[in-house]
Amino acid sequence: MSRSKALGAPSAPKVLGGKLPRIDGPLKVSGRATYTSDISLPGMLYAVPVRSTIASGRVVAIDDRVARKMLGVRAIYYRGNIRPFFRSGPAQGFSGLIDEKRPPFEDDVVRYYGQYVAVAVAQTMEQAKAAADAVRVQYAADAHNVERRLVAEKSLETDSERGDAEGAFKSAPVQIDQTYVTPTEVHNPIELHATVAAWEGDRVTLYETTQAVMNHREVLYQMLGVPKENVRVVSHFLGSGFGGKLWPWSHSILAAGVAREVGAPVKLVVTRQAMFETVGHRPRTQQRFRLGATRDGKLVSMQHEYLNETSILDAYKEDCGEATPFMYSVPNLRVASALARRNIGTPTAMRGPGAVPGLFAMESAMDELAIALNMDPIELRRRNEPLQDESTKLPFSSRHLVECMQVGAEKFGWARRDPRVGAMKRDGLTIGWGMATCSWGAMRSDAQATVEIQRDGTMSVTTATQDIGTGTYTVLALVASEATGIPLDKIDVGLGDTTLPPGPISGGSWATASVIPAVSAAARAAVRSLLTLSTSGKNAAFAGATPDDLHFANGRAARKSDPSSGVPLGDVLARANVRAAVGSGQSRTTFGGEESRKYSLHSFGAQFAEVTWQPETARLRVSRFVSVIDAGRMINPKPARNQIEGAVVMGIGMALFEEARYDKRYGAPINSNLADYIVSTNADAPAIDVTFLDYPDLVLNELGARGVGEIGLAGTAAAITAAVHHATGVRVRELPVRIEDLLRA
Amino acid sequence: MGTVISQVTTVDVELRINATTRQLALDPRTTLLDALREHLDLTGTKKGCDHGQCGACTVHVNGRRVLSCLTLAVAAQGKDITTIEGVADGDQLHPMQQAFLDHDGFQCGYCTSGQIMSALALLREPCGASDDEVRECMSGNLCRCGAYSNIIAAIQDVRATHAHEA
């Protein structure tokens, strides 16, 4: 029995777990949701950056004589004619984070193709674009390095180790030793990154495409050199981000800087092409994975050595070994890593950072081991299911990986699988089946929220987190409604503004888990405040009673002993001459917290893929997918299911399509558009069957809810390449799968 | 050094959008998309690539779906333009909008205007009846959140119940 079930989950809530549409949905389907680049302000100017056309070298001279005389042009800025920007200091926890730490124009050195070297400001977008194109930049180019083959800049450092992994591998009867490669992947949210910066005196408001308004302010005030309270960051709607919009990028600093110089609001929208250069990407990884096992499938050794590319200045580490130490039972293990420097823009977190490329390697190796052992891949994993997290010696707060595999196998029809390559046929096509497991951390960060119950029976819920498409607006309304009985149509949720109580980043799949306890506590505190008001003061509705004698239901305060005694909340507040009943709530982080010292906190899942293969035309399709996820209780299952389906769609892209390629001659990402960098289209999306096991993780929060933004992408590519192998006999270890690979079949 | 256009004045442009005629003085380089977004405050139509590759900017011109980022505003004169703002009847959502809501046919909502405009045009196109055919007809509209299954469900729902209204 799971620990959470043993503890006893709270009784099924009334409104949670239903199938409600999103409360922000009507705005989104009618074009009325306001995203950053939708903002226009009186007197606003447009900024278009000039991007470096070399990948390494120096800016020798900038000639803006033509550009600055063009119609509508207000200014051309570059190093030397604009107030310099500061660097922000070291981050503290999840505050003050930025991946590309060098501010624009800090020096005259160019370290990657597309680096901002100047910026044109004009009255219209067309004028600014023409002016930026007319700025002549003279460079002294050096040799650049955008090599695909990664070489460690230093010797590998150990991330995790137990036993004697090398010795146990050498003496293992069955060995797997392969290298897996994941390519440079670009987040490519459909919303372009953008900033609208507006100064009033020495105060600035930044409308920003950010997954973290609080962090954005923390970085920007330092880089701009103004007091923190002078910076406001707003992100009411975000056209998603997938990690690419977590931390600030140079365009935001540039927009704020030039708006300060010209004394007018400035809009800067990053082009799709520039989004391949200057706003991060998942770096290329090269992972050697070694497994040693007994002939009956017990792992005796696991070694995971990996490299990832990073930029010249920033040591971004893709933590591919995130899940390696705890996924399976193995007495001897070593995870080690190093970086490879390249003349590329700084990488950043992309959906399931570390775990997603790491699990591609691990789960591919496990599939290869199962084949070497002539064993069912589910059976291999079952034989290596750990009783605890063997890296920390802590119990899992809630782990139902074996059940995920069982349920998935039943849904998928795995028992009918013929493991021989190419043996399964349907409608003249060869069928391939593959599976993989997945995991993502279950975490919580600090969060605060305020709830106000108004005299007219409406309620506001506010916290400075964001809704990036995951349904945060709706979940918070549901939680507040659950705690107060106030119906959803009377609840207003305010997010995405640094003037609100500090909320978490929308990343790491922990926004939901973090904010729920804070909002729930704030709502309860507001009710308590209302009940207290109804017992105190000379006009009190229930003079002489204590708040504990009362309860709040259907918009009325009433004696528990006499439900008919109810007084409408508006009357309670009016009698007390109070505008609104206010409650505040907060939740603490699990990072370094008690829970993480007692438990290993993770979500788990199993992915099953079917591909169809038509050898005559080398046509490969993902035709069916089953995903079973163990991520606690789903507060709002509809958007949660949408998250997993969407992650699977992205995983199909990761497996079959996505790779940013750097041109050797110029160092530029050469397929920097949505026709040449291919993402899954509607026609690529198969039928996807998502199941949530629904074991509330009560260690994590009172509702037992974890986030599901990332886990659906983990394991997906490995399940697909396993299916590709089953269909074709080709084992693809370097993503994406290419027709050239399949022609070897 | 190539020739640089340094002095461009505006041209008068008259656009009929959502049954309303709008007079504009535009830089002739202005796309229909930028005219809508930057000059007419019709920001429901989105820019996702500016290259005709993502579909977020889809509008109707004379009843057919068109990528407004690849259409110059001056070239859209004398035609009937419909944007997402012109789809609902006041506060009453169009059945397609309601279906996207009911089927959760989006996450972040950024591509949604273009998806809905394509879906509405599709009702009048010779698209086959099957889900796979609709998937094909909707593949010019990228949804990076991957809400494709729900988008198809929404469209098929409308086609089943409102086919006669198309």
Outline the fold blueprint.
The complex is a heterodimer of chains A (745) and B (166).
Chain A: H1 3-7, H2 25-29, E1 45-51, E2 57-63, E3 73-78, E4 109-110, E5 116-122, H3 125-134, E6 136-141, E7 157-162, H4 165-170, E8 174-182, E9 194-200, E10 203-208, H5 213-224, E11 231-234, H6 250-262, E12 266-269, E13 285-293, E14 299-310, H7 324-327, E15 332-341, H8 355-373, H9 377-383, H10 401-412, E16 424-426, E17 429-441, E18 447-454, E19 459-462, H11 472-484, E20 491-494, H12 511-533, E21 550-553, E22 556-559, E23 562-568, H13 569-575, E24 580-587, H14 594-598, E25 602-614, E26 619-630, H15 637-656, E27 687-692, H16 716-728, H17 739-742
Parallel strand pairs in A: 1-12, 10-11, 14-15, 19-20, 26-27
Antiparallel strand pairs in A: 1-5, 2-4, 2-6, 3-5, 7-15, 8-13, 9-10, 9-12, 13-14, 16-17, 17-25, 18-19, 18-24, 21-22, 22-23, 25-26
Helix pairs in contact in A: 8-16, 11-12, 15-16
Chain B: E1 11-17, E2 20-26, H1 32-39, E3 58-61, E4 64-67, E5 80-82, H2 95-102, H3 112-122, H4 131-137, H5 148-162
Parallel strand pairs in B: 1-5
Antiparallel strand pairs in B: 1-2, 3-4, 3-5
Task: Kindly summarize this structure in a few lines.
With 745 residues, chain A is α+β, with helices and mostly antiparallel strands. Chain A has 17 helices and 27 strands.
Average pLDDT of chain B, rounded to a whole number, is 93
- The count of β-strands of chain A is 27
Reading off the top of the CATH hierarchy, the class of the domain at 1-33 and 394-437 and 599-745 in chain A is best stated as Alpha Beta
Strand content of chain A: 25-35%
